[in-house]
Amino acid sequence: MITIRPLPLDELLAAGVAQLLEVHWREIALYQDRVRLDVDYDRYRELDAAGRLLCLAAFDCDRLIGYAAWILTFHLHYRQCLMGANDVIFVLPEYRSRSTAGVRLIRESERYLKQLEVHRIIMHVKPAKDWTAILTRMGYEQEEIIMGKYIGAEDRSDVIEEQAMAPSRSVEHAS
């Protein structure tokens, strides 16, 4: 039996979300040859501690089969509007066609976000795994199209490690 429930981040990690994140990344991430999966769990913990992260987990008995993570933030242009921005949502491929786990994960997310007095939900969908038809049937509308372009170096892990060790500093603007 599939159940869906909210979990604090550390409980989601203990349930094995890191392994599912790897599967998810391999399925949909762009630029895999240039940007490795390197989740910043400390920043997620900060959001969780501040009450700005909602995580839901889908289980088949005791097996983690899916997850959704939402960042809660007030919109910069409409500061009275609390947004639930979907960070990630994933259900193992073998559960997509033989169950309603994905739709239930979205519905449960909506229910919990509503309890948190979220005004708007934002979902993002990769064109390579386009499931906008499901969202449309659930009442979602296309609001924007986001374009991206990779302009970085091949591997920045050495710089990231150096920055983690260095004192905090602000970003300097190029002129």
- Give the averaged pLDDT, no decimals: 89
Query: How many strand units?
Result: 5
| Percentage beta strand | 15-25%
User: What's the total helix number?
Assistant: 6
Low-confidence stretches: 168-175
Radius of gyration, whole Å: 17 Å
How many strands, which pairing sense, and closed or not: the largest β-sheet? 5 strands, mixed
Task: State the distance separating the first and last CA atoms.
Answer: 58 Å
Topology summary:
Blueprint: E1 2-6, H1 9-14, H2 17-28, H3 41-49, E2 53-60, E3 63-74, E4 82-91, H4 101-115, E5 120-122, H5 132-137, H6 157-165
Salient structural properties:
single chain; globular; 175 residues; five-stranded mixed beta sheet; 6 helices; 5 strands; disordered C terminus; alpha+beta
Structure description:
The chain is an alpha+beta fold. 33% of the residues lie in helices and 22% in strands. It has six helices and five strands; from the N terminus they run E-H-H-H-E-E-E-H-E-H-H. It has helices spanning 9-14, 17-28, 41-49, 101-115, 132-137, 157-165, and strands at residues 2-6, 53-60, 63-74, 82-91, 120-122. The chain has a five-stranded mixed β-sheet, with helices on both faces. Strand 4 (82-91), helix 4 (101-115) and strand 5 (120-122) form a beta-alpha-beta unit. It is globular, with a radius of gyration of 17 Å.
